[in-house]
Design goal:
The complex is a heterodimer of chains A (277) and B (234). With 277 residues, chain A is an alpha/beta fold. Chain A has helices at 69-75, 106-112, 127-137, 143-156, 160-163, 176-189, 206-219, 232-238, 256-261, 266-272; strands at 27-37, 46-54, 58-62, 87-94, 97-98, 113-116, 194-198, 224-228, 241-246, 249-255. Chain A is built from 10 helices and 10 strands. Chain A is globular and about 55 Å long. Chain B is mainly alpha-helical. Chain B has one domain (7-231): Methane Monooxygenase Hydroxylase, Chain G, domain 1 (Up-down Bundle), CATH 1.20.58.220. Helices cover 81% and strands 0% of the residues of chain B. Chain B has helices at residues 7-36, 44-72, 76-111, 122-144, 147-159, 161-177, 182-214, 223-231. Chain B is globular. The chains are: A alpha/beta (277), B mainly alpha (234). The interface between A and B is medium-sized, with 23 and 28 residues.
């Protein structure tokens, strides 16, 4: 078919931080000129990524395998540093704090920026102890306070009704969906600002997936959420903003509604319509 | 456009586009046929069969749209294509209904004419022929995903207002001159009403094409807006 269009698709500056206009005061995370190398001799896994992530919104990272979604996510709580050869250039600020400043307390950063992985990873402890674990690590000794936070965290994770009568049972016996919600409850018990979700529902059945998605809708009222997902329908359903990455570059970043109905870049269009993978 | 990884998806999209064009072509040919044979006796049987065929196509194509949405969950331009096709199918079905009404009005008029009556259907034939042409052009624009052509058709249809005004004025004059003309003029008004609706549906199809190709909703926008957005520099 001969397509005759008026507005050019390729007019936007792909990696400009000004790519998306948002009110400055709503920005929580700012990434500027990020380059990530896993090995000094290797090509950069992330190339010149600049973006602003809004407070109390859900931002989804989409793109084919190996495009750098999870690598970018892990930059926000310095998880990449667990690999000794990993090197990052550029800056990430959470509010006004440069999180790569040598003075930053990494444990405190990871408390503030919680993370949930693809496969639920509850500790081999009771349901109660899983949620209380972070509080105890922080030195919290007040039992009443711990009880209260465990209850509110499980409620916030939409799990309280299902486990309130068996808080002392082992978490390992919970179903996959329940375990994932327990892990989310564990993350929010320490009152983070940001929750990073790395394919949180990819190992779950459709009903458990819907429960996690519903939970994300509820959690964003209080937390800023960044989610990596391969399920584009999920990204469309749960996120307010979506970023499409390809070969380590940020191709397009904008409102999810625009990305899924009227993307500006042909590459984004081709990816989300299934024209290449 | 490049093909999808899923060949089934491509097949379903092609089928929807092809059948929508087929439905539109049938209507355009029917309008041409009416304009060329106006004043001759109307075959009520073939008219009813035609309406039935259009209705059946509408139901079938609606099902195809639902299947595409349910099975393939289209996004971006694919989603806009399915949504705009669904709207176009709806408008084509309305055109089918109006063609049936137009045919009935012509048949009623011819059945009740006295020998001395002047059917005065030349202007109706002219408008019908022009609308058949516009419908054909808009279908080509749909096939080519050509928003410039779609915008031109929307503007052309709006320019037909003058023809409708003249046809109404002619009939009012006929009634004022001779009371015997009332019956044929009233039939003429019914025909004009159907033709006006066919024009409106054709214009809507143009708008749906703009939405599909550009993601731009031009409904209820001014002529100037269309000219500025789509026709300047083209």
């Amino acid at each position: 078919m001969n397509k005759k269009t008026i507005s050019g698709r390729e007019t936007g500056k792909s990696n400009s931080i000004n790519n998306i206009e948002k009110p400055e005061n709503n920005t929580l995370i700012t990434a500027e000129g990020l380059y990530l190398y896993y090995d000094n001799n290797e090509e950069a896994a992330l190339k010149n990524i600049s973006m602003k992530i809004e407070k109390q919104k859900v931002t989804a990272f989409i793109g084919p395998s190996g495009c750098g979604k999870s690598s970018l996510l892990r930059c926000f709580n310095r998880m990449n540093e667990l690999s000794s050869t990993c090197r990052l250039e550029g800056k990430i600020h959470i509010q006004d704090q440069d999180i790569y400043d040598p003075e930053v307390n990494i444990a405190e950063l990871r408390r503030n920026v919680g993370m949930v992985f693809q496969k639920p990873n509850p500790f081999p402890k009771s349901i109660y102890e899983n949620v209380a674990y972070g509080l105890r690590i922080q030195g919290e000794k007040d039992k009443d306070k711990i009880n209260q936070i465990v209850k509110s965290s499980l409620k916030a994770a939409a799990l309280w009704g299902e486990v309130k009568d068996r808080l002392n049972s082992t978490a390992i016996n919970l179903s996959g969906g329940q375990q994932q919600r327990l892990v989310i409850a564990r993350a929010i018990a320490v009152q983070p600002q940001v929750i990073l979700l790395d394919e949180p529902a990819s190992a779950l059945d459709p009903i458990s997936t819907l429960k996690i998605e519903e939970l994300i809708h509820e959690l964003k009222k209080q937390y800023t959420i960044v989610i990596v997902t391969h399920n584009m329908q999920q990204a469309a359903r749960v996120s307010d903003y979506a970023a499409f990455l390809y070969l380590g570059k940020l191709v397009e970043f904008g409102k999810t509604n625009d990305i899924f109905t009227k993307p500006r870049k042909k590459m984004t269009e081709d990816y989300i319509t299934g024209r290449y993978g | 456009m490049e093909k999808h990884i899923s060949t089934t998806f491509d097949k379903h999209l092609d089928k929807l586009g092809g059948n929508t064009l087929k439905m539109g072509s049938l209507l355009s040919e029917r309008l041409t046929n009416i304009s060329q044979n106006i004043g001759k006796p109307v075959d009520a049987k073939s008219s009813a069969a035609f309406e039935k065929e259009i209705n059946a196509l509408e139901v079938k194509l609606d099902e195809e749209c639902v299947r595409l949405l349910a099975l393939h969950r289209p996004a971006a331009s694919d989603l806009r294509f399915v949504i705009s096709s669904s709207r176009i199918i709806n408008d084509l079905e309305s055109i089918g209904d109006e063609i049936a009404r137009l045919t009935d009005a012509i048949a009623n008029m011819l059945d009740n004419l006295n020998e001395k009556d002047d059917p005065s259907l030349n202007d109706i034939a002219d408008i019908t022929s022009k609308l058949a042409g516009l419908l054909k052009e808009v279908l080509i624009a749909y096939d080519n995903e050509d928003c410039v052509q779609a915008a031109r058709i929307i503007l052309k249809e709006r320019e037909m207002e003058e023809l409708f005004r003249n046809a109404i004025r002619t009939r009012i004059t006929m009634i004022m001159e001779e009371a015997r003309n009332v019956k044929s003029s009233v039939h003429g008004f019914w025909m004009l009403r159907s033709l006006e609706r066919i024009g409106k549906c054709t214009r809507q199809i143009g708008n749906h094409i703009l939405y599909h190709v550009e993601g731009h909703d031009a409904r209820h926008k001014s002529r100037e807006h269309l000219r500025e957005r789509f026709l300047e520099n083209n």
